[in-house]
Automatic annotation (TrEMBL):
This is Class A beta-lactamase-related serine hydrolase. The keyword Hydrolase applies. Signal peptide: none annotated. Keywords: Hydrolase. Pfam families: Beta-lactamase (PF00144). It comes from the Bacteria. Residues 23-399 form the Beta-lactamase-related domain. The lineage of its organism: Bacteria, Bacillati, Actinomycetota, Actinomycetes, Micromonosporales. PANTHER family: BETA-LACTAMASE FAMILY PROTEIN (AFU_ORTHOLOGUE AFUA_5G07500) (PTHR43283:SF3), BETA-LACTAMASE-RELATED (PTHR43283).
Amino acid sequence: MNMARSIEPAQVGLDPTRLARIDTHFGRYVDDGRLAGFQVLVTRRGEIAHSATYGLRDREAGTPVEADTLWRIYSMSKPITSVAAMMLWEEGRFELTDEIGRWLPEFADMRVYSKGSTLKPYTVPAVEPIRVWHLLSHTSGLTYGFMQTSVVDGLYRAAGYDLYPPSDVDLAGACRVFGELPLLFQPGTAWGYSVATDVLGRLVEVVSGQSLDTFLREWILHPLGMIDTRWHVEGADVERLAALYVPDPATGRAVRHDRLGDLAYAKPTLLSGGGGLISSAADYHRFTQMLLRGGELDGVRLLGPRTVRLMTRNHLPGGGDLGTLSTGGFAETTLDGIGFGLGFAVVDDPVPSRLPSSVGEYYWGGVASTAFWVDPAEELTALLFTQLMPSSTWPLRSQLRQLVYSALMD
């Protein structure tokens, strides 16, 4: 796909001079060494209004960011897995209120952390089973080992599940371990960023009878023409993959991090629907356009429009926001005024976050500072790709919103 601008920005209500501020602003991050390079794509009414690449995909090799550069999208895998699950839901294969223990018996009789330490935790029985919608909305009580905010995530780390799982465990084996660990909270009572989407990927496998990689390839990636999205990179495509960086604690400059980055060159044992995919701007652009168009793109329909609307409403308990219901720290979103749907953060009220978003905008990002959002009210999408961990290092996402929305003129 040609990622060049497809229309004059003014034709879709965007000021080209103001859009150019995006490149100038993020170019400073590259010029002073905080980022190696970046790629940005902004669309309105289905047309590419701004497309930019700047800097190097691999600073040490001296190779530039190009239109077809490959990026580790990490948690931007979650919306794709969520769409997969909802495609099965549309077929009547399960209900959102179904207990997941029906298909994954390791989650049938969960216990919930009450008090104590990682060496001696005290737990109580779950009063509510984990249901499918709990997985999609991160209200299941599951957690992540890398959160570093609770005794329960310490138990995950003790079991070998930190930022990456043990190298010899597959998805089914990981789910068996998660089922043995206590929940952080009673299902449906709070919000906690977690391995829930990995468990959802396992649910997709059991319900569909296909491995997650096969299901995604046959039912989402190939039908949408997402030819670059995959679980690892090999052969000639190795040169297209951007290097992974972390900030130097003393200078803030991006420093190469091959220990984690090189994992992208080997086929993973565990297919992580929550964080395992690699993609390109062209591919994820097609995914966001499918969502913006209510589940269809170029004659290929993955979801019905009402399903997309259901996924992008706030499903948090009592209609609350992340500011009141979140249990731990994470960097993919602000908190106040932000709800969570079935696979996406959802803007309920943009004012508390002090950002110019629209009500009903939905979005997510990845730990290496990638991000996207879809704004149905403005018929607008935006994509940001770079490779800096963690995503909390610089306020790239909020700044991109400032720059994009200030370019809207109609």
